[in-house]
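Q: I have 191 residues here and want to know how they pack in 3D. Can you give me a structure?
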Amino acid sequence: MGMLIVLGILVVAVFWAIGAYNGLIALKNRVLNAWKQIDVQLKRRHDLIPNLIETVKGAMSFERETLEAVISARNKAIGAQGVAATAKAEGELSQALGRLFALSENYPDLKATGNVAQLQEELTSTENKIAFARQLYNDEATLYNTKQLQFPTNLIAGIANASPAELWAIEDAAERAVPKVDLGFNKPPTA
């Protein structure tokens, strides 16, 4: 009878270990899938930028420095490896694109061109998809990281080659800053 109890406990422990191992592997794959979803959206963003540059470069010939900054930031973003480096490079690209869009407001010919508006709309849509994909990635990575640290699953984490997934974080103070909006309501009326 005692042997059956020990055998029963051993069988339960083996099934639990298999379940914990498979659970960690499933979470690891979900994190990888979430990262690939970010990658797909970033590629779409990177592919739209050359079209935008081609569309605006004739009208914005005096803004060559800004255009080159966007191209340089795009190239850095394409070459970035890992979560932290990608987040930093993408933040720099967002800032460069923001400067480009702000400058494009000074060119009425560009504002009247449907191509620029369409590309800006596509980039905005892509930015929203990237934000959603980053949120999904961080959710999956947090779940995976938490599962690795919880007892008793942490006993199996080493066997499953589980290592903490890096979260996508905003490191750049400029990207964290809240944009200042001045609608001129506090200005005294002019006579």
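Q: Anything worth noting?
A: Residues 30-173 form a domain with the de novo design (two linked rop proteins) fold (CATH 1.20.1440.20). The CA atoms of residues 71 and 126 lie 18 Å apart.
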